[in-house]
Each structure stands twice: as C-alpha cells, then as structure tokens.
Amino acid sequence: MAAFDVETVATYEVFADRWAASDQENRLYWQLLGQLEPNELLVRIPEWLAEEKVGYVDGAVPHAIIGRIDRETAQAIKLADAVGAPSLLKLAHSIHELERDEGTDRNEWLDRRLAEHRQSFANREGAPRLADPWLPKSQLELAIRRAEQ
Predict the structure, then answer these.
(1) How many domains does the chain have?
(2) 127 and which of 82, 85, 87, 116 could share a cystine (Cβ 3.0–4.6 Å)?
(3) How far is Cα 78 from Cα 68, in angstroms, rounded to an integer?
(4) What are the pLDDT digits (tens) for 46-61?
C-alpha cells in the first residue's frame, strides 16, 4: 500500500463525523464501505475536479470515487479501477439488506439474487470511471476506508 494518508474508521459514528452528508446518505456510504476489498478506499474530491477527471456522464458527476491506490508521487496518486461511488450505493444497500436477512429461512431465489448483486458490484459495469486516474493530493478532501471487522 502506498504511503498516502488514508483514514481508517472502525465505527459508524466516527465515519459520520468526517463525512458531511445526511444521516441516510451516510448510512448508505457506510454500507458501501463494508462491501469494499481491504485495499480499496473511498475518496472525496471537489466537484470541479470530478468534472475534469470523469468527464461527461448522464446525470450528476460523482465526486465520491471508489478505487485502490496504484501509484503515488509527491504531488498525486493514481487510482486503479476507479469508479463513481454513487453508482454502487444501491447495489451495496441491496447486498447489505440481503446479508442482514441471512439468519432467516432463505430460499434459492434469495441466494441467487444476493449472488447476482455481488457479481454486479464486483464487475461495476455501467459506473462512471475516471478518464484520468491521477488525482492531485492537494485536492483530495478525504480518503477513507472501513476497518476490517
């Protein structure tokens, strides 16, 4: 892992204090963080930088990005497999809800649905990607990951 300063949070309360959003949106992002691989992180960048790095997308340009640090210089980091986080929020929420119900009597349809959601999340098809994966460190508002449980 690169030496870039990534904040690791262990509790929802600590995350919510640092992520300025509504409580409902914070909970969705917290669920998203729970679905990420250990080497992936959530990065928040200014809107102008998102517009420059993502380019045109149908709808709002994502200023929260999911990716993993590929390379680093003194001035910038390069994210690999970087996609807009908002596109993954609904999938992460669906996975969370299906996993939460694992204690109940599950049927094959629910298991298939959970597997499909996990596959879609892993593929991240259709999510806006960074056209230029290099992000200036001076413009990163927050780089955060969820502590392993």
Answers:
(1) 1
(2) 87
(3) 8
(4) 999 998 988 777 778 8
